[in-house]
# Entry
Amino acid sequence: MTNRPAARKNGLLSETVGEETVVFDRSSQRAYRLNRSAAMVWRHCDGKNSVQDLAEIVQRELQMREPATRVVEIALQKLASLKLLEGPSVVTRRAVGRKIALAAALIPAIAAITVPTPAKAQSGTLCYTGNSRPGFVDAFCGTPK
# Structure
């Protein structure tokens, strides 16, 4: 377990859109939409910042009164499970499960978006699947009208 997480850069493309970040994984052909808090954590995972440093950055940038350690732990666990971090997981699922007592607006959300193959993209059929909110799965597949 590393105390200084590093965001994976190889094979990924990322673009910031407003307060969110979209990360495309070339190898899995999946795109992930990171909400503000998850994007902030991922952006500052440079291999130099410790988990505590990340918590201080998030607390300051989100103007939180309480320490942001739990927000960072949740984000790191999700980022690691999607293979968006280098190396082994920084935070265990069990540790996160014990500490989920946060307001829903601050919980880092990462939505997975399936990117169509070029042939499917030309067919005019659109598909989106993902988690726009923790615990909810949004899905849409169809032809635009």
